[in-house]
Specification:
Blueprint lengths: L3 E4 L2 H18 L15 H8 L4 H11 L6 H8 L7 H9 L3 E4 L3 E3 L2 E3 H15 L13 H8 L1 H10 L8 E3 L2 H22 L4 H20 L5 E3 L6 H10 L13
Antiparallel strand pairs: 1-2, 3-4, 5-6
Length: about 260
């Protein structure tokens, strides 16, 4: 069966952007917390809140994330100037180009099965992102997958339906936690001692650098916890998606 597609509505793109941010603020200490995005939010404010790349690099990520193949000039028309361009401009731009899969029920034992179709769609998207899906089953526990693939898995789920995931319960590993504390604390101490022209600034600066290295290493290690309330297995997730009002389950191609 060929995969059918429709177009996103701009509101759906905004929901995806906000859903990704909702999860990002749970595990990224840099982002600003508890912000709301609207179509009037400027690109500059969005980048600042989420600690995003400069627009000269951001367009490449958006191309990748929404599976597009547009050139830089096209993206810049929606991103620049970032003090006046808004998420409304960006969402309209993306919705006019990006395709949204219509998930059609799969025939199993003579009956249409929506959950099997959702599971197939999810693992297909993950495989496209380079995720090893060989051991992913409906019975697979979600937490090990979230720990291993983090935002890759979360953002693909949000593309299917941005309303289904509760905020991730995230706890960093001790290497990241203590590295960040050491780096930030002694960084300020080093600046103060350097201002006072103290020889101790070299020592605190060196320890601060060790903290930075620990933070860098810890960010690449699995977190202590990464789970969702009431969602323990892939099957739980699929059932949640199936009962969500936004899911695009259909038996025929639907318009916008």
């Amino acid at each position: 069966m060929e995969t059918a597609y429709t177009k996103y509505h701009p509101t759906e793109i905004l929901q995806i952007i906000h859903a990704n941010y909702k999860q990002q603020q749970q595990y990224d200490d840099i982002v600003l917390k508890d912000q709301e995005f609207t179509f009037d939010t400027t690109i500059s404010d969005w980048r600042d809140i989420c600690d995003l790349l400069d627009t000269n690099e951001l367009w490449k990520y958006l191309n990748y994330y929404f599976r597009l193949d547009l050139d830089r000039e096209s993206w810049m028309s929606a991103l620049e100037p970032e003090d006046t361009k808004s998420l409304g401009d960006l969402c309209n731009f993306i919705s006019s180009h990006a395709d949204k899969e219509i998930i059609r029920p799969i025939k199993l034992f003579g009956s249409n099965c929506e959950t099997a179709a959702i599971f197939k769609s999810l693992i297909t998207k993950l495989k496209d992102r380079g995720v090893d899906i060989s051991d992913i089953r409906p019975s697979s526990q979600l937490e090990p997958l979230i720990k291993k693939y983090k935002s890759v898995l979360i953002e693909e789920i949000n593309q299917i339906d941005p309303t289904v995931l509760p905020p991730v319960n995230y706890k960093t590993n001790w290497v990241y936690k203590w590295g960040l504390r050491t780096f930030m604390t002694l960084l300020f101490v080093t600046f103060f001692l350097a201002y006072k022209e103290s020889k101790w600034a070299w020592l605190t600066g060196g320890i601060s650098f060790v903290g930075y290295i620990m933070t860098w290493i810890g960010a690449r290690l699995k977190p202590k916890q990464a789970s969702f309330a009431d969602l323990h297995t892939v099957a739980d997730l699929v059932r949640r998606i199936n009962t969500a009002p936004n899911i695009g389950i259909a038996t025929s191609v639907a318009g916008r």
